[in-house]
């Protein structure tokens, strides 16, 4: 019987290790060597699952985007649509430790997507899904210019997250939630 | 007479070279070696001006932030405040090649600022200056909640820029300018 040296890990565990390294030290630090060390496996075990760093990054970005999109789309619809929008969009703000890590790594991937076509394709699909979902809510409500206002809701949240991760003192959680409530109120206004 | 091997370059020229490398290949690629090659000088010449990569990055980030803030603050005030706001904030959107490069590198610095205290301090000061300037305009106009709405104007623009750099097909220039006009209109609404 042959040994199965890679049976102790799997791509999802390696992606989780990559996200931990990236949240702590930035995405640049998420090398194959660092990810192996974080996951407690050999470099060969990482390379077995991901022959190149680009493949490892793409898998981790898709896993992160899927996790966040899953939370967004499983938001329970409230009788008040502004509360439904708040529950969904607050998933993207750094309001606790987990969301702060996610926001930071999502922004890092978004930046890297500008110079990496495979990551760009994942980013594009994620933004498209989010914008379409938000537009659908605004269309059902009869909001003027639903497509533009959905884009602005998403942009305001992504921008608040980007601004907050580097300057938490300027963006405490209660200010972030108040700002999101205000943007939703503006987006749902008539005229 | 001694040779002056570093007289052919200066920190500003090196910062410009760094921004070119970062816009083309990402901020990770902006190593001392790459910046020296882009500027056509020796690695020693770069190290003479910037003993560490962190110092080089901080100088380049400050130079970029100063350039963008300079353009924002030199916007001619229009009789219509929404036009003044548009002229200032459109400086931050990737509406032409120069602003696209700037937006991409600004976002890359913003992400890196989350894990680098010296870059974080520059990002903090830049955001504070922008938010304060926008608040002042809204306060003069008697807009409700000027501080929150100024934060949202800035966040929406930073978010649009972040979303557009990785997905230009979802964010063509005319859609970006329309979205900015809409956000300004929402920010200036009563109630």
UniProtKB/TrEMBL annotation, chains A, B:
Transcription regulation found in the keyword field: yes
Key words of the record: DNA-binding, Repressor, Transcription, Transcription regulation
InterPro entries: BetI_C (IPR039538), Homeodomain-like_sf (IPR009057), HTH-type_TetR-like_transc_reg (IPR050109), HTH_TetR (IPR001647), Tet_transcr_reg_TetR-rel_C_sf (IPR036271)
HTH tetR-type domain span: 8-68
DNA-binding span(s): 31-50
Record flagged with keyword Lipid biosynthesis: no
Stored Pfam families: TetR_C_6, TetR_N
PROSITE patterns xref list: HTH_TETR_2 (PS50977)
Name of this chain's protein: TetR family transcriptional regulator
Organism (species): Rhodococcus zopfii
């Amino acid at each position: 019987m042959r040994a199965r040296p890679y049976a102790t890990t799997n791509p999802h565990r390696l992606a989780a290790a990559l996200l931990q390294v990236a949240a702590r030290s930035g995405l640049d630090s998420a090398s194959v060597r660092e990810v192996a060390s974080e996951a407690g496996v050999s470099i060969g075990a990482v390379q077995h699952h991901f022959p190149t760093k680009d493949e490892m990054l793409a898998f981790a970005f898709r896993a992160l985007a899927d996790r966040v999109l899953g939370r967004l789309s499983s938001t329970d619809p409230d009788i008040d649509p502004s509360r439904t929008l708040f529950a969904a969009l607050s998933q993207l703000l750094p309001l606790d430790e987990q969301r702060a890590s996610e926001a930071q790594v999502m922004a890092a991937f978004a930046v890297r997507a500008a110079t990496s076509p495979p990551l760009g394709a994942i980013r594009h699909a994620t933004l498209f899904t989010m914008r379409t979902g938000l537009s659908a809510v605004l269309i059902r409500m009869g909001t003027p210019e639903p497509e533009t206002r959905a884009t602005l809701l998403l942009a305001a949240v992504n921008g608040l997250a980007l601004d907050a991760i580097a300057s938490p003192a300027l963006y405490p959680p209660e200010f972030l939630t108040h700002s999101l409530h205000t943007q939703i109120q503006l987006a749902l206004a008539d005229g």
